[in-house]
Amino acid sequence: MSLASETRRAVDGSPFLVDALRAGVVNYTAAARYLDVDGETDAVATAIRRYAEELPAYGTDAREVRVRMERGITPASIDGSQPETALFAIGGTSFRSDSGDLTAIVATGDVDTVALGTTLERLGIEGIEPTAAGVGEGAMMLVVEGVAGADALRTVEDALEAVPVRE
């Protein structure tokens, strides 16, 4: 494998680095030191720079969505009883509106896995760790601790204002 192809493979293994290259905010020498590529640092840096020139520019779009918060969410085992009351289900757990301690943030409209990933990343930066999250058929739901609900709502709204464009 050539140094250039090995470098591209290593860069592609770090999605944050791909985004940073697309945005034009990378120190190529520092990136070359970071990557686990056999070769001289200057040669790896050159391969990174050349790869960056081929990548599409980084861009974001605001998504057309409606975001709302629903308090009183309870996780429950999926046992076949009352499946119509579940707001969201994953694995063996459903989340129901049932006077619980959790809060659901629901976004409907132009949502997809990229919007979900962007939102999860932003929540992580804010120190908010969802209990569950998913997206499907024009709806995205994140379940958080009740005390984090208002902060999570604002973070989700902000995240959906600048979702990266994937080309």
What are the main properties of this structure?
alpha+beta; two-stranded antiparallel ribbon; VC0802-like; single chain; six-stranded antiparallel β-sheet; DUF7523; 6 helices; 167 residues
Task: Walk me through this protein's architecture.
The chain is an alpha+beta fold. The protein has two domains: 3-58; 61-164, VC0802-like (2-Layer Sandwich), CATH 3.30.2130. Helices cover 38% and strands 28% of the residues. It contains six helices and eight strands. The strands form two sheets. It has a six-stranded antiparallel sheet, covered by helices on one side. Strands 1-8 form a two-stranded antiparallel sheet. Strand 6 (132-136) and strand 7 (139-145) form a beta hairpin. Helix 1 packs across helix 4 and helix 5 crosses helix 6. The longest helix is centred in the N-terminal third of the chain and has 14 residues, at 41-54. The protein is elongated and about 60 Å long. The chain starts with a helix and ends with a strand. The model has no long low-confidence stretch (mean pLDDT 92). InterPro entries: DUF7523.
Fold blueprint:
Blueprint: H1 3-12, H2 15-23, H3 28-34, H4 41-54, E1 60-61, E2 65-77, E3 86-90, E4 93-97, E5 102-109, H5 113-125, E6 132-136, E7 139-145, H6 149-159, E8 163-164
Antiparallel strand pairs: 1-8, 2-4, 2-5, 3-4, 5-7, 6-7
Helix pairs in contact: 1-4, 3-4, 5-6
